């Protein structure tokens, strides 16, 4: 059942992309192919990639998100006793990541939000090329007025500076913006800078218990659109 605590209608809605809009489950086969068929390791690979994106941020040594993903898969493979070259890891990740399908609820939800006058913007840790390709492949490009990638800033979410940069780009105050994500760390970061937040409870995703509660907790983009529109 959707939960809502927010009062003010947001002027801009920012959307995370991977897992929030796009279904990462489609990568299980390709990632498993590099890990001796162990499909259960997909979440570990993704969390390892996110973990080390923060390492590059706090150390001041920016690395491309795709390169971090490749390195993370090699790390997971090594822990499983699997020899995996950089090229093999790249082939297992990049084509599949760039061609992920949208979750079934995404297009109807985005359409309803757009029809009701909301400005929709994607905000992702993926590269500019990556998110452009992903949204085009999934048929989501027409719904967004802008695509923002932290590649331009070289500071990964959930560093607070990433959200502050996005707000400045759209010339909107934090309380007038809504960050939508299927990651507890993402909504925690956005909430910390004063944004409204919405958690999309995709299967296997949980809120961070020590962070402030998001303004909306829903199971889909369609549910969120229902809460935000007449």
Question: Care to give the gist of this entry?
Answer:
This protein is of the alpha/beta class and 230 residues long.
Which assembly state applies to the chains in this document? single chain
What are the low-pLDDT stretches, counting only 5+ consecutive residues below 50?
none
Question: Globular, elongated, flat, extended or rod-shaped: what is the shape?
Answer: globular
Radius of gyration: 17 Å
Annotation, overall tally of beta strands: 7
How much of the sequence is in beta strands?
A: 5-15%
Please list the strands of the largest sheet in the order they lie side by side: 1-7-6-5-2-3-4
Count of alpha/pi helices = 9
Helix content: 40-55%
Largest sheet: 7 strands, mixed
Mean pLDDT: 94
Helix vs. strand class? alpha/beta
Straight-line N-to-C gap: 18 Å
SSE order in H/E notation? EEHHHHHEHEHEHEEH
Could you explain how this protein is built, in words?
By secondary structure, the chain is an alpha/beta fold. Helices cover 44% and strands 13% of the residues. It contains nine helices and seven strands; from the N terminus they run ββαααααβαβαβαββα. Strands 1-7-6-5-2-3-4 form a seven-stranded mixed sheet, with helices on both faces. Helix 1 runs antiparallel to helix 4, helix 2 crosses helix 3 and helix 3 crosses helix 4. The longest helix has 18 residues. The radius of gyration is 17 Å and the shape is globular. The mean pLDDT is 94.
Descriptive labels:
9 helices, 7 strands, 230 residues, seven-stranded mixed sheet, alpha/beta
């Amino acid at each position: 059942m959707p939960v809502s605590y927010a009062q003010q209608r947001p002027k801009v809605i920012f959307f995370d992309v991977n897992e929030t809009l796009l279904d990462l489950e489609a990568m299980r086969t390709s990632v498993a192919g590099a890990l001796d068929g162990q499909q259960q390791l997909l979440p570990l690979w993704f969390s390892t990639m996110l973990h080390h994106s923060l390492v590059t941020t706090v150390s001041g040594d920016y690395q491309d998100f795709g390169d971090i993903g490749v390195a993370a898969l090699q790390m997971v493979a090594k822990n499983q006793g699997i020899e995996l070259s950089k090229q093999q890891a790249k082939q297992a990740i990049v084509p599949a990541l760039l061609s992920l399908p949208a979750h079934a609820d995404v297009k109807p939800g985005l359409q309803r939000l757009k029809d009701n006058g909301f400005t929709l913007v994607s905000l992702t840790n993926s590269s500019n090329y990556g998110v452009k390709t992903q949204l085009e492949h999934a048929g989501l490009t027409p719904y967004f007025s802008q695509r923002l990638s932290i590649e331009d800033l070289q500071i990964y979410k959930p560093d607070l500076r990433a959200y502050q940069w996005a707000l400045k780009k759209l010339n909107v105050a934090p309380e007038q913006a809504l960050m939508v994500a299927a990651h507890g760390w993402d909504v925690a970061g956005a909430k910390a800078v004063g944004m409204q937040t919405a958690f999309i409870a995709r299967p296997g995703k949980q809120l961070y218990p020590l962070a402030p509660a998001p303004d909306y907790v829903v199971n889909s983009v369609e549910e969120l659109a229902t809460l935000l529109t007449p």
